[in-house]
Design goal:
Layout (H helix, E strand, L loop, with lengths): L5 E4 L3 H11 L9 E4 L1 H32 L3 H9 L20 H14 L5 H13 L2 H10 L7 E5 L14 H11 L3 E5 L10 E3 L3 H5 L4 E4 L11 H7 L4 E4 L6 H6 L3 E3 L6
Parallel strand pairs: 1-2, 3-4, 3-6, 4-5, 6-7, 7-8
Amino acid sequence: MRPDRIIVGSDDERATAVLRELYAPFQRNHERLMLMGVRSAELTKYAANAMLATRISFMNELANLAEAIGADIEEVRRGIGSDARIGTHFLYPGAGFGGSCFPKDVKALIHTAESAGRSLRVVAAVEQANEAQKHVLGDKIRARFGQDLKGCRFAIWGLAFKPNTDDMREAASLTLIEDLLAAGAEIRAYDPVAKPQINGVVLAESALDAVQGCDALAIATEWAEFRSPDFAALKQRLKAPAIFDGRNLYDPAMVRALGFEYFPIGRKP
């Protein structure tokens, strides 16, 4: 409804005129419509999403490096984001991107290049980095509780690939669930909207219900209701007060001062 730009790929004058009329109500303040060839418009669409995906994977890899060398990715993010040439958008590290657009368009761009006899090494690395990042939470949990998780039960907050949707396509939570189940763990999960039926996963009615009797909590989606939980009630319900935060929702010092073990992405240990 409020687009930054309206890109139209067309080589037909009548179609172009119809689209200008169609989109006129959405660009009353200034001209946003950009007319280009069909091939250029298609490539622009793929390239835009691939660029954003690249920023996410870049930050995720930097976050993993920050952990390894004792830096704080949140400080790094603010530092590089203050550069006007870089900006602050899509510089948030996490447990990997999903959804219906970024994974599909990255794959489509790679396939298009291969079909044209070209290779997109940077874009291919973005896809590889994202698939690896989806295993980070599971790796952190196994590092803390052991490779064999039989007898352990974990709560997962958030199943959708992002907040304010029930879309589960390519969601990071699915990889986490797969990793934990493969290690023998039991899972209780809660999402405000997404209610998928997943073998081996018990769906809870609320966030606090999900953590009851669990060994630890993993956060896979940054829903607003997860940002300010009742930490006292959370600690009371967890067997081991440990939080594996795949979206860096909390201040590490504050959470640890409340008596939790806290495992975010790219923050100081």
